[in-house]
């Protein structure tokens, strides 16, 4: 039976992808090359340094590790300024209602995000109190599709993987859930998230009742 829901942050609970894009684009501008919203799609769910590598490959730029760390920090400072101004109006449709629904029905709730900025985002949007466990990029060593972030979440909640459902907007996140032995709900398009047990457009399209009644999930 299902005892816990594990949520990705960016793209599932909040739309921080637009801020990531603005900051990465500013970096590309400074480096003198084009970085489109379509390019940005490839960065979703990917760690900060892996994102930088993708961005630099778009511009055909090669740099040593020290220079890369400096650029990643510059990008993160711009990004941090933007997320520091976030509030609860930026919670995605249906997310707050579904988190409350989970708690009212006795399901445990965890965060499983690649972001090292997750606590700032959760605190500014007022979402922190809804979580029993928060696993973010500061607590993991391997990025999705490695299952670490979700495995750690289940351990901290005291549930087994087959009692967990992961909510993810990125293909790498769905794969991470599968590798952790968990069921998954994709948030977005069935084209990219076809491997999930169920795909919905937003958390507004699901209730705990429906989740528990869908045998396939
Ligand atoms: P940071 P998620 C991910 O969040 C984002 O989707 C991805 O675009 C970002 O590069 C990554 O976090 C790292 O974020 O630079 O803040 O540490 O989808 O796993 O919640
Ligand atoms: Mg995501």
From TrEMBL:
<dbReference type="InterPro" id="IPR010976">
    <property type="entry name" value="B-phosphoglucomutase_hydrolase"/>
</dbReference>
<dbReference type="InterPro" id="IPR051600">
    <property type="entry name" value="Beta-PGM-like"/>
</dbReference>
<protein>
    <recommendedName>
        <fullName>Beta-phosphoglucomutase</fullName>
        <ecNumber>5.4.2.6</ecNumber>
    </recommendedName>
</protein>
<keyword id="KW-0413">Isomerase</keyword>
<keyword id="KW-0597">Phosphoprotein</keyword>
<dbReference type="InterPro" id="IPR036412">
    <property type="entry name" value="HAD-like_sf"/>
</dbReference>
<comment type="similarity">
    <text>Belongs to the HAD-like hydrolase superfamily. CbbY/CbbZ/Gph/YieH family.</text>
</comment>
<dbReference type="Pfam" id="PF00702">
    <property type="entry name" value="Hydrolase"/>
</dbReference>
<dbReference type="InterPro" id="IPR023198">
    <property type="entry name" value="PGP-like_dom2"/>
</dbReference>
<dbReference type="InterPro" id="IPR010972">
    <property type="entry name" value="Beta-PGM"/>
</dbReference>
<dbReference type="InterPro" id="IPR006439">
    <property type="entry name" value="HAD-SF_hydro_IA"/>
</dbReference>
<keyword id="KW-0119">Carbohydrate metabolism</keyword>
<dbReference type="InterPro" id="IPR023214">
    <property type="entry name" value="HAD_sf"/>
</dbReference>
<keyword id="KW-0460">Magnesium</keyword>
<keyword id="KW-0479">Metal-binding</keyword>
């Amino acid at each position: 039976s299902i005892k816990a829901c594990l949520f990705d942050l960016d793209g599932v609970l909040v739309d921080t992808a637009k801020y990531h894009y603005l900051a990465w684009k500013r970096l590309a501008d400074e480096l003198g090359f084009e970085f489109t919203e379509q390019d940005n799609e490839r960065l979703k769910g990917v760690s900060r340094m892996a994102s930088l590598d993708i961005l630099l490959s778009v511009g055909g730029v090669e740099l040593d590790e020290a220079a890369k760390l400096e650029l990643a920090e510059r990008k993160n400072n711009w990004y941090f300024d933007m997320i520091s101004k976030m509030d609860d109006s930026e919670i995605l449709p249906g997310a707050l209602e579904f988190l409350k629904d989970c708690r009212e029905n006795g399901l445990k709730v965890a965060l499983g995000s690649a972001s090292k900025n997750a606590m700032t985002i959760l605190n500014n949007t007022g979402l922190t109190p809804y979580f029993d466990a928060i696993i973010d990029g500061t607590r993991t060593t391997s990025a999705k599709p490695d299952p670490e972030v979700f495995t750690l979440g289940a351990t901290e909640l005291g549930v087994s993987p087959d009692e967990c459902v992961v909510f993810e907007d990125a293909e790498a996140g769905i794969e991470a859930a599968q590798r952790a032995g968990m069921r998954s709900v994709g948030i977005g398009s069935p084209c990219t998230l076809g491997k999930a047990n169920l795909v919905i457009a937003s958390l507004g399209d699901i209730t705990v009742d429906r989740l528990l009644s869908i045998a396939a999930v």
